Amino acid sequence: MNVGTDAQPSCRSKPAAADRGYEGLARSELPLDTVELARCLIGKIVVRSTSEGVLSGRVVETEAYPVGDAAGHAYRGETARNHALFLCPGHAYVYLAYGVAYMLNVSSEAAGVGAGVLIRALEPLEGIATMQRNRRVENLRDLARGPGRLAAALDVDRRLDGADLCRLGPLWIARDPREAPEIGTSTRIGLSREADRRLRFYIRGNRFVSGPKALNS
User: Fold this and answer.
1) Is 57 helix (H, G, I), strand (E, B) or coil?
2) What is the Cα 191 distance to its own chain's centre?
3) Which architecture characterizes domain 23-215 according to CATH?
């Protein structure tokens, strides 16, 4: 059973408590707009608590899938599969893409309105050895460079669908005390619908960003 079906998710704004030096984001800090949230999440920390310890990475790349976007999973309405996209902002929506790789998304907009932000790449910070075992690779640059890779590195799958990312738990989002990064924008990657929209955000010059070099300049 996934996280989202265990209990009714809370939409309160109380942030996750500080843990291992990380301080969680309050829901009230999340913009109530999908595109703004995609930009806001750049530079934040995804924290994954596992039996083997804490794994974490800095968000270096996101894609927005706003309301009415034909490329988004919420476009045709709410289903059992995409229910987490219709929760209030700051919940995990995890789906299996093409039957081979899980994707981690963050719900956006008001409760009942389906939209979300795809986390496309992370800069590994903590628990790197465990991430390498999870991915069966040693190359640090490629460890979480891409949405399927980062989900595998952090051991994220449908069990975490619906998880409250604004509350301390198995998966949550924290602030990064470092200076705000310089953010670039581009079209999204690998889409056939609404492919010309500039809804991809990334940290300029960061080597952990995914995709073609032409989109990262």
Assistant:
1) strand
2) 18
3) Roll (3.10)
